[in-house]
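Morning, I've got a small favour to ask if you have a moment. It would help a lot if you went through both lines with me. I owe you a coffee for this, so here goes:
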Amino acid sequence: MTTKQFYPIGTPGQPWTEREKHQWQQAQTRSRCYKNDVLDVLHQLKHRYALIQYGELSYGDDIYPLMAAKSKNWDDNIPVALITGGVHGYETSGVLGSLYFLSECQSEYAGKVNLLVVPCVSPWAYERIVRWNYDAVDPNRQFFPEGKAEESLALMALISPLRGRFVVHIDLHETTDTDESEFSPALAARDGAQYVPVSIPDGFYLVGDEQNSRHDFLNAIISAVAEVTHIAPSDNEGNLLGFPVVSPGVIEFDNNAFHICATITGTSLATTTEVYPDSAKTSPEECIRAQIVAIRQAIEFALSN
């Protein structure tokens, strides 16, 4: 009897050792440039924002400064809005959406809320268009003190002094066809588990926290985004990715149980966005615009509530 191997690295049913992790590292190819796409854009905006280097990654021969932009006229007497992108480096619209937001934003939030924007949490993964970091770890499962992703720990350290002051946090993500063709099979292979395929939601949706339901906040974002791109319909069981749809385009689960990025500020107005740029009904450009609209609506809701 033979066991079908769904991923070219490892032995079915056996978790990876350091040997397999090294094979995976060596198989990843740099396809784009973090410096050109992110750092240079931030540098062009330094006359409008204060740039902060909040950490540095050293992976193999590569060194990546971790950068954030914040309101130039920071006011300690007003609250803070956090925007994060690129926690999963391959999710392009989150990175570009946060950068485009910075470029488009003028002074409309001055005196109302401080902006703190981290466009690309995982630069090594961004360059290689992968989900994991260099150590084959998913940063979006590592946002807790004992987490094993340097990217996650560095971001937590950045925002730690500001906890209690965040009024909103929106974490920008997307789903692509490679979630099922590459990343889910790789995860099963790494963990020695069986790969079970799932259907990718076709459209924009949000992830809320079932321990802190804010349907008013999430529904406001969905209504705004629906003006620029389509909202993902639920499947035949009324779910998206196996989670019940609690309102159109919104799913919930216990965010803290998964240690995802949206938990780090402690604010009640926190969510994870998801778009599907591979859909025949949209385009990568439209998905970027959806992310920008989601950011703006999240901030506007926070300021008016």
Remarks:
- Residues 18-304 form a domain with the Aminopeptidase fold (CATH 3.40.630.10).
- The first strand starts at residue 49 and ends at 59.
- The first helix runs from residue 18 to 27.
- The mean pLDDT is 96.
